Amino acid sequence: MSGLRSKVLSCYRLLHRTRLKVFEGDLQALEASKHRIRTEFAKHKNETDPSKIAELLAEAESAEKFLRCNVVQGVETNRGTVRLKITEHTELQNNASLPSKKNK
């Protein structure tokens, strides 16, 4: 059980490190994400079933990857545009094309 405990603590720390990078400079998002991580881990602190713990760890690892790879911060510039903070982990994907509007 101590092996699982160390995995849980490691995952908890990783989520907090990731949120600090992803939401850097955004105090509201930093506080909200800290609260959410703490709440979710506290909700399951008395779980003893190893398979359930493994399932919860997989969910937490998936959430960490989503934050790291899919959440992009935008910073408004003084010219009214938004500069995106793309990192080496950001998964860039093509946007779906929207059909053009036909003139009526």
Query: Shape, please?
Result: elongated
The N- and C-terminal alpha carbons lie at a distance of 68 Å
Strand content: 5-15%
Low-confidence stretches: none
Chain-averaged pLDDT: 86
Strands of the largest sheet, in order across it?
A: 1-2
Number of helices: 3
Can you describe what's shown?
Interacts with UQCRFS1. Its main location: mitochondrion. Pfam families: Complex1_LYR. It comes from Porites lobata. With 104 residues, this protein is mainly α. Helices cover 57% and strands 8% of the residues. It has helices at 2-22, 27-43, 50-70, and strands spanning 73-76, 82-85. It has a two-stranded antiparallel ribbon. Helix 1 (2-22) packs antiparallel against helix 2 (27-43).
Features:
single chain; 104 residues; mainly alpha; two-stranded antiparallel sheet
Task: List the SSEs and their pairings.
Layout: H1 2-22, H2 27-43, H3 50-70, E1 73-76, E2 82-85
Antiparallel strand pairs: 1-2
Helix pairs in contact: 1-2, 1-3
Protein name: Complex III assembly factor LYRM7
Keywords: Chaperone, Mitochondrion
Main location: mitochondrion
Describe the structure concisely.
This is Complex III assembly factor LYRM7. The chain is mostly helical.
